[in-house]
Design a protein that fits this description.
By secondary structure, the chain is α+β, with helices and mostly antiparallel strands. It is built from six helices and six strands; from the N terminus they run H-H-H-E-E-E-E-H-H-H-E-E. The strands form two sheets. A four-stranded antiparallel β-sheet has the order 3-4-5-6. Helix 1 crosses helix 3 and helix 3 runs antiparallel to helix 6. The protein is elongated. The chain starts with 10 loop residues before the first helix and ends with a strand.
């Protein structure tokens, strides 16, 4: 049959890309992305300052000075293709440790000289020397907004709403540097971090469930096969729960890492 063809147009994928582009333009095509209105007359002058701060935060400051556009793109693509998506907002501090060379004045010897009262005094002779110093520098302290794959999150209660759920458990991967950084901030226990690292790395599986998920992965760049960043990481379960931690009978919001 001369009219037969082996060409298959990905109509579903094309429709998803079209809808994704329209919603993305609706979210990011407005400048500023939202307007701040003062609820009281005394705060009218502050409304513009808050609006500019939020604009700067979303466009430049958040996500280690990269803005939230890419994460919104990823979240919106998951929502369009899978029907649901999860955005996670948190505060993040990142440190870097390095060895710096500093200069300081060091006394090398003393010489004697007559003083004003005729007494002999010892005068120090100093010279400038260089020494190495361990430095722990804070390189980022600000908000993080990230799109979380739905398959990496377990919701207990809340009818699918993470804000109303009784328990939220997220599977994530962290490097050894990130684990030690959390230990330096007194968030993680250093002994527990050492045990996790000594147990060996966990490798992120980039298995694609179906063709649409593969296309989504290639489009957003969130999980590439054989990506070097997918190795030498450790799987951590982060749990947000409400529980009685002090025996008072009142539930408190806590975060646990396993």
């Amino acid at each position: 049959n001369y009219w037969s063809s082996t060409l298959h147009l990905p109509t579903v994928y094309t429709a998803a890309k079209t809808m994704h582009a329209r919603f993305l333009a609706a979210l990011l095509g407005i400048d500023p992305p939202f307007n701040v209105k003062a609820r009281q007359a005394a705060n009218v002058d502050r409304a513009m300052l808050i609006q500019e701060l939020m604009r700067y935060t979303l466009a430049s400051w958040a996500n280690e000075n990269k803005g939230v556009e890419r994460e919104l793109d990823n979240w919106l693509w998951r929502w369009v293709t899978a029907g649901s998506g999860i955005l996670k907002a948190r505060w993040h501090r990142r440190f870097e440790r390095y060895v710096d060379v500093v200069e300081e004045m060091v006394t090398t010897e003393y010489v004697s000289a007559p003083g004003e009262d005729g007494q002999t005094v010892m005068i120090p002779i100093q010279e400038k020397v260089e020494r190495e110093e361990d430095v722990l520098a804070e390189v980022f302290n600000g908000p993080i907004v990230e799109a979380i794959p739905v398959e990496d999150v377990l919701l207990i209660g809340g009818s699918g709403d993470p804000q109303a759920a009784d328990d939220v458990i997220q599977s994530l991967y962290m490097t050894a540097s990130e684990l030690w950084s959390m230990a330096d901030q007194k968030v993680f226990n250093r002994d527990a971090v050492e045990k996790v690292i000594n147990a060996g790395e966990d490798y992120i599986d980039a298995e694609q469930v179906n063709h649409l998920k593969s296309l989504m992965s290639n489009s957003t760049g969130t999980s590439n096969v054989d990506n070097p960043s997918n190795v030498q990481k450790y799987q951590i379960l982060e749990r947000y729960a409400r529980m009685d931690v002090d025996g008072s009978g009142i539930a408190a919001e806590v975060i646990l890492w396993v």
